[in-house]
Amino acid sequence: MRKGSSATRPTETSNGGIPMEARLELRHLRYFQAVAEELSFTRAAERLHIAQPPLSQQIKQLEDDLGVQLIERAERPLRLTDAGKQLLSRAAEILSSMQTTVDEVRRIGRGMAGQLSIGFAGSAMYNFLPTILNAYRDLYPEVDLTFVELLACQIEDALEARQIDVGFSRPGLEAHEKIRQRMLLEEPMVVAVPERHPFAVRPCVPIEALDRQDAILYPRYPKPSITDFVLQQLEANAVHMDIVQEVGNLQTALGLTAAGVGITFVPASVGQHRRSGVRFLALDPPILTSPMTVVWLKDATSAALGNFLNIVENNKPVRWIPDEPDRLATGQA
Length: 333
Known about the structure:
InterPro entries: LysR_HTH_N, LysR_subst-bd, WH-like_DNA-bd_sf, WH_DNA-bd_sf
Organism: Paraburkholderia megapolitana
Distance between the termini: 94 Å
Order of helices and strands: EEHHHHEEHEHEHEEEEHEHEHEEHH
Keywords: DNA-binding, Transcription, Transcription regulation
Number of strands: 14
Structural class: alpha/beta
Helix content: 25-40%
CATH architecture of the largest domain: 3-Layer(aba) Sandwich
Pfam families: HTH_1, LysR_substrate
GO molecular function, one term: DNA-binding transcription factor activity
CATH topology of the largest domain: D-Maltodextrin-Binding Protein, domain 2
Strand content: 15-25%
């Protein structure tokens, strides 16, 4: 070799210089595996449902491409060479892995497997959402579900950032060109008061009695927010609340209510669950309502999401009906 020259090992090619690795196909491995396991071209052809001559040609082409002999044809039954035994072992691994991959891809494509991230208003867990989740998990147990409690304004942002696939928003989102939305229910709201609050001994609370009461509410901004929705309805009835604390989730609001910091408003479904230190009272008249929607991106293509939305549609409440309206009215929830 002359000084300054370099040499590299040539790539093994044939058939017009195409690398052998680019020509080797899964069908070659399936054909070889059948012949190697049957040790007969005739039986292998029957197993593969093809004629014997094309099968023999494919195996010969495979040997030519590899540059090694795989099968001793002079033997009866056929006998594998050492190279053939090694290829059979690896071919079985490759084909098994490929079949597993194909099965996984098909399950994901049909929504039978994969992942689904769900954002939700905390109060949704007191209503029909657990029923939907149970129904979905029964039908699609291989889909991994993740959950994030979010405010309505956070649900919109999380959808756009594709951090969640679907959301349950209270209240519904404003019209958006990228988001689809479906109303699920609109239920009445009740007032939660500390058990030592003067209201706690009443059977219900007149709307006008709420004026200038200390309130614990979610942030009013950014919109949409359930607080803004509630305050608009109250202000339309000449009732103004003094917001003493803004909180980020339902449990904190109820905890501070139990501590006597102020009163708060919750959907009636929440009011049917006993909470230490808190009384839930109906409003008179029941002017406050709490709508909930399911929201998702218009361009979403996930089959798992499509299946989930079908479950939502099949399990959504037609309307909200308190289980025990008398218990709620007497403040014994």
